[in-house]
Design brief:
Elements: H1 3-34, H2 39-42, H3 51-62, H4 66-80, H5 85-106, H6 111-141
Helix pairs in contact: 1-3, 1-4, 1-5, 3-5, 4-6, 5-6
């Protein structure tokens, strides 16, 4: 599998994270400029942001939880040359689940839908890790 095919889903995931970061920043600055939020109210914590800012912020912060395991797996799969077509397809499935999760998180924020998108991503990533582990140990055993 080509390196670019393996890396492209990672770039999309990173792109999602950066979009959320800039969106959060723009929204925060807008609230500060309008005077709705005062710097002194948020200087020691983020609890005083309006709900919309917190919603985007939470989605952004969520990109540093489960996706970290995805990033590590991609690096390991590249190093060990265990990234094949199945790996790439599952990577895209994982990233799609993260896009859906972020879309729900930053729009309706319906917990049941958001949770289902999260669970789908967790299951895909868990399966990816299991397949990777099997392939590593099978290669070591000479199977």
């Amino acid at each position: 599998m080509s390196i670019s095919a393996v890396i492209l889903p990672v770039l999309v995931q990173v792109g999602l994270t950066l979009i959320l970061l800039f969106w959060m920043g723009q929204t925060r600055v807008g609230h500060l400029r309008s005077g709705e939020v005062k710097v002194k109210d948020i200087a020691l914590g983020e609890r005083n942001w309006p709900n919309r800012v917190t919603q985007i912020q939470n989605s952004y912060h969520n990109q540093f939880e489960l996706p970290v395991l995805f990033y590590v797996l991609v690096v390991l799969a590249l190093i060990t040359r265990k990234a094949d077509m199945l790996f790439v397809i599952m990577s895209w499935m994982f990233v799609a689940s993260r896009l859906v999760h972020a879309a729900i998180h930053t729009t309706s924020n319906k917990i049941s839908q958001r949770f289902m998108a999260f669970v789908v991503g967790v299951l895909i990533l868990a399966i990816m890790w299991v397949i990777f582990g099997i392939r590593i140990f099978a290669a070591e055993a000479g199977v």
